[in-house]
Specification:
The protein is mostly helical and about 400 residues long. Helix content is about 70%, strand content about 0%. It has 17 helices and two strands. The protein has a two-stranded antiparallel ribbon. α6 packs across α8 and α7 packs antiparallel against α8. It starts with a helix and ends with a helix.
Length: about 400
């Protein structure tokens, strides 16, 4: 009986990334089953040896609990529990990361799905129709549309494709299929017109091309060239939007960046008044109305559009310091694993490292880590990276 349950657990964990890219409801349902089976079958063997970062994560969660409990605005327990539940995705990551064959199988299946999603995203980019929800048109810009894939929001889809980009290129020993998977991720992100993730992809491509194996240099070098060429040809609206955002064009066009800077400025004022435990989970909209500039045209923005400022606003400066320390330790640990490994193990360690860095870069300009789908896939990757030994 236990052998059968273990096989069920393993199968669901391998499929977990596919579920995250497909449906948040399916992801949460299967994650609950994974957690139940994991502890029922006593999965201590799957825990990583380098467990110290997880203790920091526990400290971070405790601070968040205290902040929510003592919130001067409102204690939004349901949203806090929902936000904390994503950390459970570490568990399928531990299970899959224990064995390289499991990783390859999991991300190969994801790569196949990514190709399908990239084709769908191109359709959405040009025609603006979310067939799954019967919604038309999607959010438009420059006479094109922000593709959402199977997600409800284009930035969610962009974050998922960006996270997958450095990993799906490692799924087989051949070059053609991994190359197709990585280009598909690039196309998906370009179709969303999400600038922060495009910059993340370009960064990831350059780093992997310089420091990767011969196979990685080929795959990500070609992917980099394709992303650049596509951005200023097939996806010209995306290239135009990025050019405006980076202010490398002289054409007149309203930009979103001044809005983002004003959000960051408002966040700093809130942090100044609530430095210890912040304002509590999901209270941004209420407090924002008090602190925003009176002539600021946006009455509600949901969050500061920066994961780090969002952490400090909601949970205080102490939470932010623990959060940053956690990521510094994780990145240092993965860097050391990459530097001290060789062969295809070295490829995987670099892939994990670049994948996480891409999202951390994107988090400077957007709240990716509090987006449920992105957070689930991120913590799956973190769990796999910490557990992976080859």
């Amino acid at each position: 009986m236990n052998a059968t349950l273990r096989q069920v657990l393993l199968s669901i964990c391998i499929l977990f990334p596919v579920f995250v890219f497909t449906s948040i409801a399916l992801s949460n349902l299967t994650l609950g089953l994974i957690v139940f089976l994991f502890f029922l079958l006593d999965g201590r063997d799957e825990f990583p040896k380098q467990f110290f970062p997880i203790w920091l994560l526990i400290v971070y969660i405790v601070i968040q609990f205290l902040s929510t409990f003592f919130s001067p605005i409102a204690s939004n327990w349901s949203s806090w529990i929902e936000e904390m539940s994503v950390f459970a995705a570490l568990i399928p990551g531990f299970v899959v990361g224990k064995d390289k064959q499991r990783l390859e199988r999991s991300l190969f299946l994801l790569g196949l799905l990514v190709v399908i999603l990239s084709i769908y995203s191109v359709y959405q980019y040009f025609y603006g129709w979310d067939l799954l929800r019967g919604r038309r048109p999607l959010l438009a810009l420059f006479h094109r549309y922000h593709a959402t894939g199977l997600q409800d929001f284009y930035l969610t889809f962009a974050g998922l494709m960006g996270l997958a980009f450095p990993l799906v290129g490692l799924t087989t020993r051949y070059v053609f299929l991994p190359l197709a998977f990585t280009i598909a991720c690039g196309i998906g992100v370009l179709a969303t017109m999400a600038r922060s993730m495009i910059l993340g992809l370009l960064f990831g491509s350059i780093v992997t091309t310089i420091f990767g194996s011969k196979k990685q240099k080929i795959i990500y070098g070609i992917s980099f060239v394709c992303i650049i060429l596509f951005m200023f040809s097939i996806f010209s609206a995306t290239g135009e939007r990025l050019s405006y955002g980076l202010e490398v064009t002289q054409k007149h066009q309203p930009r979103g960046d001044p809005t983002r800077i004003e959000l960051w400025h408002t966040s700093m004022k809130i942090i100044r008044d609530y430095p210890i435990l912040g304002i509590g989970n999901n209270n941004w909209n209420t407090v924002f109305e008090k602190y925003r500039k009176k002539d600021f045209s946006f009455s509600s923005t949901a969050h500061p559009h920066n994961d780090y400022l969002s952490t400090a606003v909601e949970y205080g400066i102490g939470a932010l310091l623990v959060f940053l320390l956690f990521w510094v330790i994780v990145l240092y640990h993965l860097f050391q694993k990459w530097r001290n490994s060789s062969g295809d193990i070295r490829e995987w360690n670099l892939g994990f490292l670049v994948s996480i860095i891409i999202l951390l870069i994107g988090s400077v300009f957007q709240n990716y880590q509090t987006d449920a789908e992105n957070a689930l896939f991120l913590w799956f990757i973190v769990g796999a990276a910490l557990r992976f030994e080859g």
